């Protein structure tokens, strides 16, 4: 499906700052000269056609719940079978084949560190392969949307993670919308009724999570490949610890870098500690961005690699509910 100009405009505008009001689609529609019901219809169609995966919260790692990035080195003749095992795990949110000896990469995100560890243990037991666990050390840039036109000259920055005091309602609310807001006239009321809370209570908690930097953006989560951005590059470097913050600051400012973060290296199997995500229409575009990063940060001679994704086996939002059945 080729997205219409209206769909592209709605996606581009509402990847962030989706209205936290009783009737958000009435406001959203005004930006495209649509009435409320027509707007809801467009969003339902975009979700059905996989242009967007959901409208909802993108949560800063390890604030509410826990998460990690992990990888496996899978013999090529076992890749489909092992990928199926990994994707069946309820807490696995993303599962990709990438071009590297470590060829299966997945994100595990759930309620707490114990649930993450249990997931890793099950995967190792079922596959007979050791999981390379790479938890977040430092997040330098968490993407606040994905421009469908030229990269924005001024990147949006989320609020720093502030003085957030966990509230038991927050995890329940995030669990209720982990697959996205209901695409109805009163979505927050639908969530509130499900949780036996008040609508204003749900909206107020989401506003607090956004203000505290726990939710880094609230809006459309796009399917990049469905919109023509098929060269998904995970660029990684081995950066000395004494300069990693300075290098990361340079990388994070680049308009084409959607994520930048530090993870631990693992001797013998994974020497890299700084990660950047670059989404491009073609490989040449991705390589051009990485070349520019190396020039800006003087990292061209440092050990590095680019892992392009080959296949997506699973992609969904973080899981905050407990005992969630696999989709």
UniProtKB/TrEMBL annotation:
Pfam families the UniProt entry points to: AsnC_trans_reg2, NirdL-like_HTH
Gene Ontology MF term list: lyase activity
Domain Siroheme decarboxylase NirL-like HTH intervals: 9-51, 170-215
Main enzyme class: lyase
Pathway: Porphyrin-containing compound metabolism
Organism domain of life: Bacteria
Entry-linked InterPro entries: AsnC_trans_reg2 (IPR040523), HTH-Siroheme_Decarb (IPR050684), NirdL-like_HTH (IPR053953)
Record's keyword annotation contains Iron-sulfur: no
Catalytic activity: siroheme + 2 H(+) = 12,18-didecarboxysiroheme + 2 CO2
Positions of the Siroheme decarboxylase AsnC-like ligand binding domain: 66-138, 226-314
Keyword field: Lyase
Enzyme Commission identifier(s): 4.1.1.111
UniProt cross-references to PANTHER family, sorted A to Z: SIROHEME DECARBOXYLASE NIRL SUBUNIT, TRANSCRIPTIONAL REGULATOR, ASNC FAMILY
Assigned protein family: Belongs to the Ahb/Nir family.
The name this protein goes by in its record: siroheme decarboxylase
Organism of derivation: Bradyrhizobium nanningense
């Amino acid at each position: 499906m080729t997205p219409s100009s209206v769909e592209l405009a709605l996606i581009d505008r509402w990847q962030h700052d989706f209205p936290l009001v009783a009737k958000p689609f009435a406001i959203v529609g005004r930006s495209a000269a649509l009435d409320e019901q027509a707007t809801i219809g467009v969003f339902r169609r975009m979700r059905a056609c996989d242009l967007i995966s959901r409208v909802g919260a993108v949560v800063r790692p390890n604030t509410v719940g826990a998460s990690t990035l992990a990888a496996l080195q899978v013999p090529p003749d076992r890749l489909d079978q092992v990928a199926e095992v990994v994707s069946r795990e309820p807490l696995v949110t993303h599962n990709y084949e990438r071009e590297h000896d470590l060829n299966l990469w997945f994100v595990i995100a759930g309620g707490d560190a114990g649930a993450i560890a249990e997931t890793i243990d099950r995967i190792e037991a079922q596959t007979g392969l050791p999981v390379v666990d790479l938890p977040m050390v430092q997040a330098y840039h968490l993407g606040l949307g994905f421009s469908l036109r030229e990269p924005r000259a001024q990147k949006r920055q989320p609020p720093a993670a502030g003085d957030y005091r966990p509230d038991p309602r927050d995890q329940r609310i995030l669990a209720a919308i982990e697959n996205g807001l209901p695409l109805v006239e009163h979505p927050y009321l639908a969530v509130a009724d499900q949780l036996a809370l008040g609508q204003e209570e749900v909206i107020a908690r989401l506003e607090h999570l956004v203000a505290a930097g726990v939710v880094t953006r609230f809006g459309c989560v796009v399917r990049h490949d469905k919109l023509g951005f098929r060269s998904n590059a995970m660029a990684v470097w081995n950066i000395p610890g004494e300069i990693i913050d300075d290098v990361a600051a340079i990388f994070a400012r680049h308009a084409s870098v959607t994520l930048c973060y530090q993870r631990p290296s693992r001797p013998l199997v994974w020497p890299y500690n700084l990660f950047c995500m670059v989404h491009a229409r073609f490989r040449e575009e991705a390589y051009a961005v990485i070349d520019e990063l190396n020039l800006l940060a003087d990292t061209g001679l440092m050990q590095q690699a680019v892992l392009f994704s080959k296949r997506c086996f699973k992609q969904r939002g973080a899981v905050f509910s407990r005992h969630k059945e696999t989709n």
